[in-house]
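Weekly sync, protein design subgroup
Attendees: M.S., D.O., the rotation student, P.L. (late)

Item 1: inverse folding check
M.S. brought a backbone from last month's batch and wanted to see whether the design step gives back something sensible before we order anything. D.O. pointed out we never logged the input encoding, so this time it goes straight into the notes. Structure tokens as presented (90 positions):
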């Protein structure tokens, strides 16, 4: 029997969610999986909505843009960047 993976992707989220709701569900799910000190932040601008990495250094939070749009591909791309940063921190 196969082991099921617990990784969240756009395809294994609740099938009843569509469009923007599905994006928000994916974003919140991946946001909960972030390690301590590194988070995801949704930035809304007049031109589009982007995803940024947010770092906690001491008591301050700093946002750094990573040029990823608020789409399924952009959210997964930010999640991959977050894991790369986590590897470097260790």
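Designed sequence read out in the meeting:
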């Amino acid at each position: 029997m196969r082991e099921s993976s617990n990784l969240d992707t756009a395809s294994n989220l609740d099938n009843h969610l569509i469009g923007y709701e599905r994006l928000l569900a994916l974003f919140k799910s991946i946001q909960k999986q972030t390690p301590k000190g590194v988070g995801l932040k949704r930035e809304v601008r007049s031109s589009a909505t982007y995803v940024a990495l947010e770092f906690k250094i001491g008591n301050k939070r700093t946002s750094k843009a990573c040029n990823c749009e608020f789409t399924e591909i952009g959210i997964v791309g930010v999640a991959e960047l977050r894991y790369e940063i986590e590897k470097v921190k260790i």
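Discussion: The beta strands are 38-44, 49-57, 60-69. The chain is about 35% helix and 30% strand.
Action: P.L. to compare against the previous round before Friday.
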